Amino acid sequence: MSESLLSIGKVVNTHGIRGELKVLLSTDFPEVRFAPKSELLLVNPETQRKIKVTVDQSRPYKQTYIVKFKEYGNINEVEQYKGWDLKVTKDQTIELPENEYYFHEIIGCRVVTDEGEELGVIDEILRPGANDVWVVKTPARKQILLPVIDDVVLDVNVKDKLVKVHLMEGLL
Fold it and tell me: What angle do CA 118, 124, 128 make, to 5 degrees?
């Protein structure tokens, strides 16, 4: 299984004694990803060992999701998966509405201004609140923080990995 995988969450703890796991989400679609019968991969972050699992049931819980897999029935069987990642294959990507993008589509994009100046490459995405912020690493290894708002982000071409932006006063 060498296909590329998308991370949808991280197992942070067990929950109760019936084999449920507490998952910190990294997906905008938990109700789809953790729906009963969904097939996911548990991935050990150190060894990359993968185990295919099937969602039995899930529910939101505070800032996390509680997920139970068909394969496991008690806490002793699942305790070993604390710290493991939950992933899906890229062919399970959910079609997004226009002007919405997956993190993996944005990270690595070159950023140019509407005046043609090359700024750098998107290195990270921050989610502080009202809007996302794209962190652009410049050739000089400095960081530029770009708010993802219509006035700044003019065009996103994920196929060519190119983002065109308008630098408002005070952004640099």
Answer: 115
- The model's pLDDT over 67-80, given as tens digits with 9 standing for 90+, comes to 999 999 999 999 99
| Residues belonging to the chain | 172
The DSSP line for the chain is --S-EEEEEEEEEEETTTTEEEEEE--S-HHHHTSTT-EEEEE-TTT--EEEEEEEEEEEETTEEEEEETT--SHHHHGGGTT-EEEEEGGGPPPPPTT---HHHHTT-EEEETT--EEEEEEEEE--SSS-EEEEEPTTS-EEEEE-STTTEEEEETTTTEEEE---TT--
Q: Which two tokens stand for residue 128?
A: 């502080």
| 54 vs 72: CA distance, rounded Å | 10
Whose tokens are 């060498």? That residue is 2
pTM comes to 0.62
What pLDDT, in 10s, does the model give residues 103-114?
A: 888 999 999 999
Q: Which two tokens stand for residue 47?
A: 């060894």
Q: Which two tokens stand for residue 124?
A: 């990270």
> Environment class of residue 99 by beta-carbon count within 10 Å: exposed (0-12), middle (13-18) or buried (19+)?
exposed
